[in-house]
Write a structure and sequence with these properties.
Layout: E1 4-10, E2 43-46, E3 52-57, E4 79-84, E5 91-94, E6 98-99, E7 107-108, H1 132-139, E8 158-163, H2 197-210, E9 217-221, H3 227-237, E10 244-247, H4 260-273, E11 281-285, E12 288-291, E13 295-297, E14 305-307, E15 314-317, E16 323-324, E17 346-350, E18 358-362, E19 377-382, H5 399-414, E20 424-430, H6 439-450, E21 455-459, E22 476-477, H7 483-497, H8 511-530
Parallel strand pairs: 1-8, 1-9, 9-10, 10-11, 19-20, 20-21, 21-22
Antiparallel strand pairs: 2-5, 3-4, 6-7, 11-12, 12-15, 13-14, 15-16, 17-18
Helix pairs in contact: 2-3, 3-7, 7-8
Length: about 525
């Protein structure tokens, strides 16, 4: 039976694709260098340069091997002799590299190099440019064998292609640039977060890869605090029925008790099981299968993930066997109203209520990929008790919301050909689960809607239920989504529907203008109700 084929995508700032700093071992330290503490030298997976014969002490693989030596074949020698060859793969060996500093011997590499600007913050990377080396080390059992004591845990199950979507590590010698082509978080001074245009890149690459029919599943690797957002976005935008799994880690690859390797293996087992078809994008961590819509990190530890929304979200468990207990009851992937296939190439909408002139925004490139400039700009505002700035409920005290409106109008006035964003929206995180705030905030949201910004309201923090269906002004309710997920759905919805029709005077909209805005709000609401 032929093995399945899986695409493995590298996403930004992914701890699962990071490793501890390469620190020079004591075997390569001179008498004048600082010695590493402890009784053992640390080992790092590396390749042999040439074959070497070694003698391995018998009965040294387990404390009770010698106790059972009567079952072992005895050739009369106290050792096994074996030839190790470069083609065998990686071996755990002392790390003996040293950093050049102009001296004859150089100096040891240290963790502290990463905090030294004079050294370019170490001038080395520890995020992998793609996941191929990680998969090799897992199969080589560098960090652990399978439950049967054997290697090739992944290779026995599937074949893999490794795709650098928004990678955390880059080839600077080939011209790749930090913050443009790759996005790490270590060293801290060189940390870069991806801009909104990378959402277009992620969805376009994953969609183009999975729709050609060559793959049976996809795995997306990303940092544990942010994978919940990208995975939900991919579940909304990518119209593919094959399993798409997000994998993260709380501890770096190669660090003691790292969880990422196991999560990768579980993701592959999930795809191979065939149980994930039609379930949309899921996150698999700590042997649980989470729906992308509810997937959320709560703490920086293994087991630190949860389902939001208060009504499910954990779809299954890894077993064995892989078991699906529940299935999503909302639209995603192939049924999503905002997947790439359902988005227009050129989006047209009325700028003002009753205006026959249309604003046109490019959403897709000629090849069907998303245009980088098409991603809307959606801000998040939040309510805190005792935060009302006056007793009159005046919008003028909400300087942050008003500033967002001013920026949106300024960028829109520059026109679609100016290269600045033409689509702007607002998510308001209010009381849970009602999604309401102070009177001055409600007044400012009304001005935002009359200025063309769709406004969606959600409950604070981790909502345990949906926002009630009692429309406040010209806003829509965000179901039981948290603010970050509602932001992404609003961005996707705007790429389908555009902006709200503006009023000539946003502070004094006519009833006719408000009715036109409400009609457009209802189109947005249908998307939020379905997803």
């Amino acid at each position: 039976m032929p093995k399945l084929k899986i695409a493995v995508f590298s996403g930004p700032q992914s701890t699962v694709a990071n490793s501890p700093t390469l620190v020079t071992s004591n075997k390569a330290r001179l008498s004048t260098d600082r010695k590493l503490e402890g009784r053992f030298d640390h080992l790092v997976s590396q390749s042999l340069y040439e074959p070497v014969k070694v003698k391995i002490k018998k009965y040294s693989a387990h404390p009770l091997e010698e106790d059972a030596k009567s079952v072992y074949h005895d050739d009369g020698k106290p050792y096994y002799e074996v030839e190790l060859r470069p083609e065998d793969g990686l071996y755990l060996l002392p790390y003996v590299a040293r950093r050049k500093d102009g001296s004859s011997n150089g100096v040891p590499f240290e963790e502290s190099d990463l905090n030294n600007p004079a050294l370019g913050f170490g001038a080395r990377q520890f995020f992998y440019p793609d996941a191929s080396r990680i998969f090799e080390e897992i199969d080589r059992t560098i960090h652990g064998r399978d439950e049967h004591g054997e290697a090739d845990i992944l290779d026995r199950k599937a074949t893999f292609d490794f795709i650098r979507a928004i990678p955390p590590g880059g080839y600077t010698s080939k011209g790749e640039k930090l913050g443009v082509d790759y996005f790490p978080y270590k060293p801290p001074a060189l940390a870069r977060t991806p801009p909104a245009s990378m959402l277009a890149r992620a969805a376009s690459i994953v969609n183009a890869t999975l729709k050609n029919g060559d793959y049976d599943g996809g795995v997306w690797l990303e940092g544990s605090p942010t994978i919940e957002e990208t995975l939900f976005w991919l579940g909304l935008l990518v119209p593919s029925a094959i399993p798409l799994v997000g994998v993260a880690a709380q501890r770096a690859h190669g660090q003691i008790s790292n969880d990422g390797d196991r999560n990768i293996i579980d993701a592959v087992n999930y795809i191979v099981s065939g149980e994930g078809k039609g379930l949309g994008a899921v996150g698999i961590v700590d042997e649980q299968i989470f729906a992308a819509r509810e997937f959320k990190k709560s703490d920086d530890r293994p087991g630190g993930y949860k389902a939001t929304g208060g009504h499910g979200g954990v779809l299954g468990s890894m077993g064995p066997p892989v078991t699906i207990w529940y299935k999503p009851n909302y639209r995603h992937t192939t049924t999503s109203m905002v997947n790439i296939d359902n988005l227009p190439g050129m989006l047209s909408f009325s700028d003002f209520s009753g205006d026959a002139r249309q604003v046109t925004v490019k959403i897709k490139n000629e090849d069907g990929s998303l245009a980088p400039d098409s991603i809307p700009s959606v801000a998040i505002a939040k309510y805190g008790h005792y935060s009302a700035r006056d007793s009159k409920g005046s919008a003028d005290s909400e300087v942050d919301i008003l500033a967002r409106i001013s920026t949106a109008l300024s960028e829109q006035s520059a026109g679609a050909g100016s290269g600045v964003n033409q689509l702007h929206g607002l998510v308001f995180e209010g009381l849970a689960p009602y999604g309401i705030g102070a009177g001055n905030q409600i007044a400012a949201m009304d001005i935002a809607a009359c200025s063309g910004l769709p406004v969606v309201r959600v409950g604070r923090g981790d909502p345990g239920g949906r926002v009630p269906k009692n429309q406040i002004g010209l806003t829509m309710d965000g179901n039981n989504l948290d603010a970050t997920k509602a932001r992404l759905l609003l961005m996707a919805a705007m790429m389908k529907l555009g902006r709200l029709p503006k009023a000539q005077d946003p502070r004094n909209a006519t009833q006719h203008e408000r009715d036109a805005i409400k009609a457009k709000v209802q189109q947005f609401q249908e998307i939020f109700d379905a997803h």
